[in-house]
Amino acid sequence: MGLIRKLPPSVVNQIAAGEVVERPSSVVKELLENAIDAGATRIDVSVERGGKDLVRIADNGQGMAPDDLLLAFQPHATSKLADVEDLYRIRTLGFRGEALAAIAEVSRFRCQTRQADAPEGSEVVIEGGVAGPIRACGCPPGTVMEVRNLFYNVPVRRTFLKSDSTEAGHVVETFSRIALAHPEVHLTYRSGGKVIHDLPPVTGMRERIAIFHGRELAESLLWIEGRLDQIHLWGYVAHPSQSRSSNKGQYLFLGGRYVRDRSLGHALNEAYRGLLMIGRNPVAFLHLEIPPEEVDVNVHPTKIEVRFRD
Ligand code: ADP
Ligand code: MG
Predict the structure, then answer these.
(1) What is the pTM of this model?
(2) What is the predicted pLDDT for the residue at 64?
(3) To test the ligand 1 pocket, which listed residue (31, 71, 78, 110) has its Cβ within 8 A of the most ligand atoms?
(4) What does the alpha-carbon distance between residue 186 and residue 140 come to, in Å, rounded to a whole number?
(5) How far is CA 15 from CA 116, 301, 310, in A?
(6) pLDDT of 68 higher than 90
(7) Residue range 128-184, pLDDT digits in tens
Protein backbone atom coordinates (compact mmCIF):
# COMPACT_ATOMS: atom_id res chain seq x y z
CA MET A 1 0.00 0.00 0.00
CA GLY A 2 1.41 3.37 -1.00
CA LEU A 3 1.86 6.01 1.68
CA ILE A 4 2.19 9.15 -0.39
CA ARG A 5 -0.75 11.47 -0.85
CA LYS A 6 -1.20 14.77 -2.63
CA LEU A 7 -1.91 17.51 -0.08
CA PRO A 8 -5.24 19.34 -0.32
CA PRO A 9 -4.99 23.03 -1.40
CA SER A 10 -5.69 24.36 2.10
CA VAL A 11 -2.68 22.49 3.50
CA VAL A 12 -0.53 23.67 0.60
CA ASN A 13 -1.60 27.25 1.35
CA GLN A 14 -0.87 26.84 5.04
CA ILE A 15 2.63 25.65 4.21
CA ALA A 16 3.13 28.61 1.87
CA ALA A 17 1.80 30.89 4.61
CA GLY A 18 4.46 29.47 6.92
CA GLU A 19 7.15 30.75 4.59
CA VAL A 20 5.66 34.08 3.61
CA VAL A 21 3.78 35.15 6.74
CA GLU A 22 5.89 35.06 9.84
CA ARG A 23 4.34 37.98 11.72
CA PRO A 24 2.23 41.11 11.13
CA SER A 25 5.16 42.95 9.55
CA SER A 26 5.29 40.26 6.82
CA VAL A 27 1.69 41.15 5.95
CA VAL A 28 2.60 44.84 5.86
CA LYS A 29 5.56 44.10 3.57
CA GLU A 30 3.55 42.06 1.06
CA LEU A 31 0.62 44.47 0.95
CA LEU A 32 2.88 47.52 0.64
CA GLU A 33 4.78 45.86 -2.21
CA ASN A 34 1.52 45.12 -3.98
CA ALA A 35 0.42 48.75 -3.59
CA ILE A 36 3.73 49.99 -5.03
CA ASP A 37 3.43 47.49 -7.91
CA ALA A 38 -0.10 48.83 -8.53
CA GLY A 39 1.43 52.27 -9.15
CA ALA A 40 0.04 53.91 -6.01
CA THR A 41 1.23 57.44 -5.23
CA ARG A 42 -0.40 57.42 -1.81
CA ILE A 43 -0.56 54.56 0.67
CA ASP A 44 -2.07 54.65 4.15
CA VAL A 45 -1.06 51.96 6.62
CA SER A 46 -2.78 51.42 9.93
CA VAL A 47 -2.38 48.74 12.54
CA GLU A 48 -4.03 47.75 15.80
CA ARG A 49 -2.09 45.91 18.49
CA GLY A 50 1.11 45.81 16.47
CA GLY A 51 -0.83 44.41 13.52
CA LYS A 52 -2.02 41.33 15.40
CA ASP A 53 -5.63 42.53 15.45
CA LEU A 54 -5.59 44.59 12.27
CA VAL A 55 -3.39 45.56 9.35
CA ARG A 56 -5.15 47.91 6.95
CA ILE A 57 -3.52 49.25 3.82
CA ALA A 58 -5.31 51.63 1.48
CA ASP A 59 -3.76 52.67 -1.82
CA ASN A 60 -4.74 54.83 -4.77
CA GLY A 61 -3.21 52.47 -7.32
CA GLN A 62 -4.77 50.87 -10.38
CA GLY A 63 -7.23 48.64 -8.50
CA MET A 64 -8.64 45.37 -9.81
CA ALA A 65 -11.56 44.36 -12.01
CA PRO A 66 -14.20 42.23 -10.22
CA ASP A 67 -13.13 39.12 -12.17
CA ASP A 68 -9.55 39.57 -11.05
CA LEU A 69 -10.50 39.95 -7.42
CA LEU A 70 -11.10 36.26 -6.76
CA LEU A 71 -8.15 35.21 -8.89
CA ALA A 72 -5.86 37.50 -6.90
CA PHE A 73 -6.43 35.28 -3.85
CA GLN A 74 -5.72 32.03 -5.65
CA PRO A 75 -2.26 30.55 -5.06
CA HIS A 76 0.18 31.07 -7.94
CA ALA A 77 -2.07 33.67 -9.52
CA THR A 78 -0.33 36.85 -10.60
CA SER A 79 -0.58 39.61 -13.18
CA LYS A 80 3.19 40.14 -13.06
CA LEU A 81 4.52 37.11 -14.92
CA ALA A 82 3.36 35.24 -18.00
CA ASP A 83 6.08 32.78 -18.89
CA VAL A 84 9.33 31.41 -17.57
CA GLU A 85 11.44 33.99 -19.42
CA ASP A 86 9.69 36.73 -17.45
CA LEU A 87 11.17 35.21 -14.32
CA TYR A 88 14.57 36.50 -15.40
CA ARG A 89 13.50 40.05 -16.15
CA ILE A 90 11.46 40.99 -13.15
CA ARG A 91 10.86 44.67 -12.59
CA THR A 92 8.03 44.41 -10.07
CA LEU A 93 8.40 43.76 -6.35
CA GLY A 94 6.04 40.77 -6.46
CA PHE A 95 5.83 37.94 -8.98
CA ARG A 96 5.25 34.69 -7.07
CA GLY A 97 1.49 35.14 -6.84
CA GLU A 98 1.54 33.69 -3.36
CA ALA A 99 1.16 36.44 -0.82
CA LEU A 100 -2.57 37.13 -0.90
CA ALA A 101 -3.49 33.43 -0.88
CA ALA A 102 -1.10 32.78 1.99
CA ILE A 103 -2.27 35.71 4.11
CA ALA A 104 -5.96 35.00 3.47
CA GLU A 105 -5.44 31.41 4.62
CA VAL A 106 -4.42 32.52 8.12
CA SER A 107 -6.58 35.59 8.77
CA ARG A 108 -9.91 37.28 8.24
CA PHE A 109 -9.31 39.22 5.05
CA ARG A 110 -11.41 41.87 3.40
CA CYS A 111 -10.55 43.54 0.13
CA GLN A 112 -12.30 46.43 -1.57
CA THR A 113 -11.03 47.55 -4.93
CA ARG A 114 -11.97 49.77 -7.83
CA GLN A 115 -10.37 50.68 -11.12
CA ALA A 116 -10.43 54.40 -11.89
CA ASP A 117 -12.84 54.07 -14.85
CA ALA A 118 -15.22 51.62 -13.13
CA PRO A 119 -18.59 52.97 -11.95
CA GLU A 120 -18.34 51.07 -8.67
CA GLY A 121 -15.96 48.92 -6.71
CA SER A 122 -16.08 45.29 -5.67
CA GLU A 123 -15.49 43.59 -2.39
CA VAL A 124 -14.69 40.13 -1.09
CA VAL A 125 -14.32 38.68 2.41
CA ILE A 126 -12.13 35.61 2.93
CA GLU A 127 -12.02 33.85 6.28
CA GLY A 128 -9.32 31.26 6.85
CA GLY A 129 -9.00 30.76 3.10
CA VAL A 130 -12.74 30.43 2.44
CA ALA A 131 -13.91 33.18 0.10
CA GLY A 132 -17.41 34.66 0.20
CA PRO A 133 -19.14 36.07 -2.89
CA ILE A 134 -17.86 39.10 -4.79
CA ARG A 135 -20.15 42.02 -4.07
CA ALA A 136 -20.40 45.49 -5.57
CA CYS A 137 -19.45 48.27 -3.19
CA GLY A 138 -18.82 51.99 -3.13
CA CYS A 139 -15.17 52.93 -2.71
CA PRO A 140 -12.65 55.37 -4.17
CA PRO A 141 -10.35 54.20 -6.99
CA GLY A 142 -7.59 52.00 -5.62
CA THR A 143 -7.54 49.14 -3.16
CA VAL A 144 -8.15 48.66 0.55
CA MET A 145 -6.79 45.48 2.11
CA GLU A 146 -7.84 44.64 5.68
CA VAL A 147 -6.26 41.75 7.51
CA ARG A 148 -7.79 40.99 10.90
CA ASN A 149 -6.85 38.48 13.61
CA LEU A 150 -3.72 37.11 12.02
CA PHE A 151 -3.27 33.38 12.80
CA TYR A 152 -6.71 33.19 14.50
CA ASN A 153 -7.06 29.70 12.99
CA VAL A 154 -3.44 28.63 13.68
CA PRO A 155 -3.16 29.10 17.47
CA VAL A 156 0.38 27.68 17.61
CA ARG A 157 1.63 30.38 15.31
CA ARG A 158 -0.13 33.08 17.29
CA THR A 159 1.81 32.05 20.38
CA PHE A 160 5.06 32.78 18.51
CA LEU A 161 4.10 36.43 18.20
CA LYS A 162 5.72 38.88 20.59
CA SER A 163 4.28 41.81 22.54
CA ASP A 164 2.25 44.44 20.70
CA SER A 165 5.09 46.94 20.92
CA THR A 166 7.67 44.46 19.58
CA GLU A 167 5.41 43.58 16.65
CA ALA A 168 4.74 47.29 16.03
CA GLY A 169 8.52 47.81 15.97
CA HIS A 170 8.86 45.23 13.19
CA VAL A 171 6.03 46.90 11.30
CA VAL A 172 7.72 50.31 11.50
CA GLU A 173 11.00 48.82 10.30
CA THR A 174 9.21 47.29 7.30
CA PHE A 175 7.36 50.54 6.65
CA SER A 176 10.64 52.49 6.83
CA ARG A 177 12.32 50.23 4.25
CA ILE A 178 9.55 50.91 1.74
CA ALA A 179 9.52 54.60 2.64
CA LEU A 180 13.28 54.88 2.03
CA ALA A 181 13.12 52.92 -1.22
CA HIS A 182 10.16 54.92 -2.55
CA PRO A 183 10.44 58.55 -1.44
CA GLU A 184 8.18 59.57 -4.36
CA VAL A 185 5.20 57.89 -2.66
CA HIS A 186 3.14 59.66 0.01
CA LEU A 187 2.99 57.24 2.95
CA THR A 188 1.23 57.44 6.27
CA TYR A 189 1.37 55.14 9.27
CA ARG A 190 -1.16 54.95 12.09
CA SER A 191 -0.98 52.75 15.14
CA GLY A 192 -3.92 52.45 17.52
CA GLY A 193 -5.65 55.29 15.65
CA LYS A 194 -2.75 57.70 16.22
CA VAL A 195 -0.83 59.15 13.27
CA ILE A 196 2.81 58.17 13.79
CA HIS A 197 4.21 59.08 10.38
CA ASP A 198 2.89 61.28 7.60
CA LEU A 199 5.50 61.36 4.84
CA PRO A 200 4.67 63.56 1.86
CA PRO A 201 6.47 62.73 -1.38
CA VAL A 202 10.07 63.94 -1.56
CA THR A 203 12.75 63.61 -4.21
CA GLY A 204 15.57 62.02 -2.21
CA MET A 205 16.02 59.66 0.74
CA ARG A 206 17.68 62.14 3.06
CA GLU A 207 14.61 63.61 4.75
CA ARG A 208 13.21 60.17 5.35
CA ILE A 209 16.51 58.96 6.76
CA ALA A 210 16.32 61.85 9.22
CA ILE A 211 12.82 60.78 10.26
CA PHE A 212 13.70 57.14 10.89
CA HIS A 213 17.34 57.46 11.96
CA GLY A 214 17.63 60.96 13.41
CA ARG A 215 18.82 64.38 12.24
CA GLU A 216 22.35 63.90 13.47
CA LEU A 217 22.90 60.84 11.32
CA ALA A 218 21.17 62.42 8.32
CA GLU A 219 23.45 65.46 8.54
CA SER A 220 26.56 63.29 8.51
CA LEU A 221 25.66 61.53 5.27
CA LEU A 222 27.91 61.62 2.24
CA TRP A 223 26.47 61.18 -1.24
CA ILE A 224 28.17 58.53 -3.32
CA GLU A 225 27.53 57.41 -6.86
CA GLY A 226 29.29 55.11 -9.29
CA ARG A 227 28.66 53.39 -12.61
CA LEU A 228 30.26 50.38 -14.19
CA ASP A 229 28.85 49.13 -17.49
CA GLN A 230 25.13 48.75 -16.81
CA ILE A 231 25.54 48.80 -13.04
CA HIS A 232 24.60 51.92 -11.11
CA LEU A 233 25.26 52.32 -7.39
CA TRP A 234 24.14 55.43 -5.54
CA GLY A 235 22.99 56.68 -2.18
CA TYR A 236 24.42 57.81 1.12
CA VAL A 237 27.08 56.51 3.44
CA ALA A 238 27.47 57.91 6.94
CA HIS A 239 30.54 59.58 8.36
CA PRO A 240 32.63 57.08 10.38
CA SER A 241 31.63 58.93 13.58
CA GLN A 242 28.14 57.46 13.06
CA SER A 243 28.93 53.75 13.32
CA ARG A 244 26.70 51.06 14.86
CA SER A 245 27.44 47.99 16.96
CA SER A 246 25.38 45.83 14.56
CA ASN A 247 24.82 45.97 10.82
CA LYS A 248 21.24 47.19 11.35
CA GLY A 249 22.13 50.61 9.94
CA GLN A 250 22.87 49.12 6.53
CA TYR A 251 20.16 49.43 3.93
CA LEU A 252 20.67 48.01 0.49
CA PHE A 253 17.99 48.38 -2.16
CA LEU A 254 18.18 46.40 -5.35
CA GLY A 255 15.83 47.69 -8.01
CA GLY A 256 13.70 49.34 -5.29
CA ARG A 257 13.59 46.19 -3.16
CA TYR A 258 15.22 45.97 0.28
CA VAL A 259 17.63 43.04 0.27
CA ARG A 260 20.32 41.60 2.50
CA ASP A 261 23.49 40.32 0.97
CA ARG A 262 26.51 39.11 2.88
CA SER A 263 29.08 39.78 0.20
CA LEU A 264 27.87 43.33 -0.38
CA GLY A 265 27.77 43.90 3.39
CA HIS A 266 31.31 42.63 3.53
CA ALA A 267 32.37 44.98 0.71
CA LEU A 268 30.93 47.89 2.66
CA ASN A 269 32.81 46.91 5.81
CA GLU A 270 36.01 46.60 3.78
CA ALA A 271 35.53 50.10 2.43
CA TYR A 272 35.49 51.42 6.01
CA ARG A 273 38.42 49.32 7.16
CA GLY A 274 40.79 51.42 9.24
CA LEU A 275 38.14 54.11 9.74
CA LEU A 276 36.10 52.30 12.39
CA MET A 277 37.00 50.63 15.67
CA ILE A 278 36.87 46.86 15.77
CA GLY A 279 33.30 45.69 16.32
CA ARG A 280 31.74 48.82 14.84
CA ASN A 281 29.76 48.75 11.60
CA PRO A 282 29.25 51.46 9.00
CA VAL A 283 25.85 53.00 8.30
CA ALA A 284 24.76 53.25 4.68
CA PHE A 285 21.69 53.63 2.49
CA LEU A 286 22.54 52.37 -0.96
CA HIS A 287 20.63 51.71 -4.13
CA LEU A 288 21.93 49.28 -6.68
CA GLU A 289 20.47 49.10 -10.17
CA ILE A 290 21.60 46.24 -12.34
CA PRO A 291 19.98 44.62 -15.38
CA PRO A 292 17.31 42.20 -14.05
CA GLU A 293 18.78 39.29 -16.00
CA GLU A 294 21.99 39.64 -13.95
CA VAL A 295 20.28 38.75 -10.71
CA ASP A 296 18.00 35.95 -9.57
CA VAL A 297 15.40 37.25 -7.12
CA ASN A 298 13.60 33.92 -6.97
CA VAL A 299 15.73 32.24 -4.33
CA HIS A 300 13.86 33.18 -1.18
CA PRO A 301 10.11 33.14 -0.44
CA THR A 302 10.17 36.68 0.93
CA LYS A 303 12.76 37.74 -1.65
CA ILE A 304 15.00 39.28 0.99
CA GLU A 305 17.98 37.41 -0.40
CA VAL A 306 18.99 37.36 -4.05
CA ARG A 307 21.65 35.67 -6.12
CA PHE A 308 23.99 37.64 -8.36
CA ARG A 309 25.17 36.05 -11.58
CA ASP A 310 28.60 37.61 -11.03
P1 ADP B 1 2.15 38.88 -6.68
O2 ADP B 1 2.34 40.22 -6.06
O3 ADP B 1 3.39 38.04 -6.54
O4 ADP B 1 1.63 38.93 -8.08
P5 ADP B 1 0.02 38.58 -4.73
O6 ADP B 1 -0.64 37.38 -4.15
O7 ADP B 1 0.69 39.51 -3.79
O8 ADP B 1 1.05 38.07 -5.82
O9 ADP B 1 -1.05 39.38 -5.58
C10 ADP B 1 -1.76 38.72 -6.63
C11 ADP B 1 -2.25 39.72 -7.68
O12 ADP B 1 -3.26 40.56 -7.12
C13 ADP B 1 -1.17 40.69 -8.17
O14 ADP B 1 -0.41 40.11 -9.23
C15 ADP B 1 -2.02 41.87 -8.63
O16 ADP B 1 -2.49 41.68 -9.95
C17 ADP B 1 -3.21 41.85 -7.69
N18 ADP B 1 -3.07 42.83 -6.58
C19 ADP B 1 -2.64 42.57 -5.34
N20 ADP B 1 -2.64 43.69 -4.58
C21 ADP B 1 -3.08 44.69 -5.37
C22 ADP B 1 -3.30 46.11 -5.18
N23 ADP B 1 -3.07 46.71 -4.00
N24 ADP B 1 -3.76 46.83 -6.24
C25 ADP B 1 -4.03 46.23 -7.43
N26 ADP B 1 -3.83 44.91 -7.67
C27 ADP B 1 -3.36 44.14 -6.66
MG1 MG C 1 2.57 40.55 -4.01
Answers:
(1) 0.95
(2) 98
(3) 78
(4) 17
(5) 35, 12, 32
(6) yes
(7) 999 999 999 999 999 999 999 999 999 999 999 999 999 999 999 999 999 999 999
Ligand 1 proximity of 98 Cβ (cutoff 6 Å) = yes
How many Cβ atoms from other residues are within 10 Å of residue 84's Cβ?
A: 7
Q: Is the CB of 44 under 6 A from ligand 1?
A: no
pLDDT digits (tens, 9 = 90+) for 22-47: 999 999 999 999 999 999 999 999 99
Q: How far apart are CA 158 and CA 166, in angstroms?
A: 14
Would the CB of 43 count as within 6 Å of ligand 1?
A: no
For the cut 90, the answer to whether the pLDDT of residue 216 exceeds it is yes
Q: Is the CB of 92 under 6 A from ligand 1?
A: no
How far, in Å, is the centroid of ligand 1 from the Cα of 26? 15
Separation of alpha carbons 26 and 20, rounded Å: 7
Rounded CA separation 173/166 (Å): 11
Q: Are 251 and 265 in contact (CB under 8 A)?
A: no
- Separation of alpha carbons 1 and 117, rounded Å: 58
Asked if 150 and 27 count as a contact pair (C-beta separation under 8 A), the reply is yes
